[in-house]
Amino acid sequence: MSIIIRPVITEKLSRLLDESNKYTFEVEKSSTKPEIKKAVEAKYPGVKVDKVNTLIMPSKPKGRYTRSGFQAGRSKTWKKAIITVKEGEIDFFEEV
After folding, report:
1. For residue 31, what are the contacts with CB-CB under 8 A and spacing of at least 6?
2. Which residues of 13-50 are buried (b: 16+ CB within 10 A; e: fewer)?
3. pTM for the full model?
4. Containing H/E element for 34?
5. Tens digit of pLDDT for each residue in 43-82?
6. Quick one: which of 17, 50, 23, 52 has its CA closest to 35?
């Protein structure tokens, strides 16, 4: 299984990218910072990772209405990695 699940692209994170060259990924929950660094450098050749910050995103309550009433639940918890790049550039939109 791959350590990097997907890039996270939001308005706030795109501002972070423009200002300080930081990229954000959803990663495996059990992965460590050195593993994430190696995975990013392997997946994107020419990129040198300077720093990796990680955080666990908590689950949020979710609910929906069905024919039989309200059905409550929660979203999953996931791990976010914010990667500071020393040199190189990652283009998310070229992959798709």
Report:
1. 3, 39, 79, 81
2. beebbeeebbbbbebbeebeeeebbebbbeebeebebe
3. 0.84
4. helix 33-43
5. 998 999 999 999 999 999 998 888 888 888 999 999 999 9
6. 52
